[in-house]
């Protein structure tokens, strides 16, 4: 049985205030098209990891503090509880973002954001 802790760095999600401009920038610097391209999220596959662009500025603003590294977990709710029991602050409770993907965000004891991501296989 897999443990509830952090397994592997899976995704880095950047908050952006201008999604078309951000998409164009990352297309140019990555030299590839996004694999997922919607008005609410753009995702690029980069050597087995994901760079995501999130235009929702209601929770985080672009710039310092606007990026979240998401750690792959086998059980989102167990990992959520484990982080909270060890001093993390809840920021975004576990929720589904579509296509079998559930995410949550906590802050470590120093204020750094930790994303948790469980992807149905």
Quick summary:
This protein is α+β, with helices and mostly antiparallel strands. Helices cover 18% and strands 44% of the residues.
Provide keyphrases for this structure.
single chain, 121 residues, alpha+beta, globular
Report on the architecture of this protein.
This protein is α+β, with helices and mostly antiparallel strands and 121 residues long. It is 18% helix and 44% strand. It has helices spanning 19-30, 76-85, and strands spanning 8-15, 36-38, 41-46, 49-54, 67-72, 89-98, 101-107, 113-119. Strands 2-3-4-1-5-8-7-6 form an eight-stranded mixed sheet, covered by helices on one side.
Topology:
Elements: E1 8-15, H1 19-30, E2 36-38, E3 41-46, E4 49-54, E5 67-72, H2 76-85, E6 89-98, E7 101-107, E8 113-119
- Share in β-strands: 35-45%
| Rg (CA only) | 14 Å
Order of helices and strands: EHEEEEHEEE
User: What is the averaged pLDDT score?
Assistant: 90
Number of helices: 2
Distance between the termini: 16 Å
Query: Structural class, please?
Result: alpha+beta
Largest sheet: 8 strands, mixed
Please provide the count of β strands. 8
Give me the oligomer status.
single chain
Largest beta sheet: strand ordering: 2-3-4-1-5-8-7-6
Tertiary shape: globular
Query: What are the segments in which pLDDT stays under 50 over at least 5 consecutive residues?
Result: none
Instruction: Please give the share of residues in helix.
Output: 10-25%
